[in-house]
Amino acid sequence: MVVTPYLSARWSPPQRLARIVDHCETIERLGFPLDTPLDSFVNLLVLDEIDPVFRIVLDQPSWLLRDGQATFSLWEGADRLVSLSYCLSSDGGILTAHIGGCQGRGEAGVLDRYRRFTKRAEGIRPIDFTIELFRLFCRSLGVTHIRAVSGANHHQQSAYSVQVCGGVAVHLSYDALWASRDGHPLPDGDYALALDPPRRAPEEIPANKRAMYRRRYALVDALASRLEQVVRDGERPGMLGRYPRPTGSPRSVPTPARSPAALIDFGHTPAPSQ
Description:
Number of domains: 1
């Protein structure tokens, strides 16, 4: 990750090394649930308010390391639905989260799974839900800034990736994704995300949808409260698990046994070796 691009195409090799070291030192200082073995996962939150089959998991999958050294994922049962990869920085005494990628599933029938989640989550799409929960998670950690990589600055758009890999097909603009979540462009081309999820004023909501929005905001508030408590209380029995493969987690949890499903990046198509 030092010789080849990591997270942002703008980062030089010395900057990449500094970011990697900074992330490791930051999670060591913050401790659980961030500072865990590479082959482990943390069951951060079971989403009982939506359906207990859904949960939020923290891990460090090897095939996503170039997007970020840590991953915040929405799972359904044994499968991850959406994964948001990031690294943390304490540069200058300011705790910052750098988002480097967002991925979903690519197999047949996945849209039905997304629709099922959206219906149960009061109209929040899985990708939007994952971003909003990540904001709340960052807030509970004491993060003060969230930066999200733009499409042009993504590591897959670096000169190295274009020359060696021949470029990458883009399926959804990261810029459009962050803008849809009220992200604001920064001078360096990336996006700043607020720590608090955006909310519409009552007068901006159609009358026939106000009840749904009240339930949606109540759901987010309940999850925010639980996230803060989990981070505050630290490790509890059953939260930390280990994958059977020491080099990284499989795309599906080993129980029940099943073959890994392909992942598709919302912003680009990664090489299978990532």
